[in-house]
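Run log, item B.
One chain of 398 residues. Sequence copied directly from the ordering sheet:
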Amino acid sequence: MIELAWGISCGVLILAAALRVAGASLVRTPRADALHDAADGVPGAVSVAELLEDRASIQPSISLIHSALLVASALSAAWAIATLSSGWILVTALILTGVALVVFGEWLPRSLGRERPRVIAYRLARLLRVAVRAGERAVDLIYDEEDDVNSGADANGDHDASDREEIRMISSVLEFSYAIVREVMTPRTDMVTLGADLTTTEALDLILEYGFSRVPVTGRGADDIVGLVYAKDLLHLVGEPAEATPLAEIIRPPYFVPETKPVRDLLREMQSSQFHMAVAVDEFGGTAGLVTIEDLIEELVGEIVDEYDTEPPMVEPLEAGVFLVDARLPVDDLAGLLDTHLPDGEWDTVGGLVLGLAGRVPIVGERFEFDGAVLIPERVQGRRVERVRVSHLVGTQR
């Protein structure tokens, strides 16, 4: 029996350590990276991306199951020790056992998981899924009574507008803490750029047309960003017969950041280094997109629209239950709009979803159906879907 108790204690401790190392790796994994890896077919990435959809529930669920495992391991070990010893030897053995449980069941696994995000989480994705689901059910049982007490107030809408705004702001801050540049940047296909071979007069005409204060300047192509041109450096040419000069003479050096950089770190850099625009690059050094300080602030406070913004709305109601949406709209937002479930394991946007359902570049007017939703591309530019008409299947509106 003593050998069995030690075996149970060691086995449960190993399971607790595996759960802790996987949980630490999971919370350090950006969801955008998991989605990208899932699209590349990395095993376990799909499960990790799904778990990261509800990041707030991960820590409580895993911590509850992990604590239960450590307690079970401690109880089994304590029984075995108490059977074999007594007095000060028993006390010493129990103290050493407690230290071992903390070191090998908590401290070392947590440190290892933090050093290796993504990789460990992918390998132990099944364990994480089981632990999170079990933990969520256990947490629901623990807080069930409290929820019942508060449900009346919530159902009656006793939270006023200021409370709801605070909740929304706190949620935005939490999401901001985990977001990366790829999730907020303007993709390369939407960037407006100037060629380095243009003159200042030509550049001024384009800036006046689009109304941007800063525009990237390209050399040999979109992946070769050689600088930025500021509108205020060109405004002195307005109304003056000044001679056009090469644009390369007035450009300013660009600031490059990896597309996987956390936005919280980039915002601090922009504040301390006093720059408002950065070029995001992918792992191969190519241009992935463009991010501005306004993009980062919008991630916190929501869309900022000034009197000169003329972009069409992301969602345009056409008739009852029918909408014309921008292909950049997040899949989660569309699912909420239609009150249905849409697959977002590999795609962040509606355009990516349509590409995934088609398995190729879709044709304008082609019809795709999924879980009661109908998606019809309305505008396709080259290999890119731009606008999609979405609606419910007849008879399935919820």
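Observations after the first pass:
- The CA atoms of residues 88 and 119 lie 44 Å apart.
- Confidence is low (pLDDT under 50) at residues 145-159.
Flagged for discussion on Thursday.
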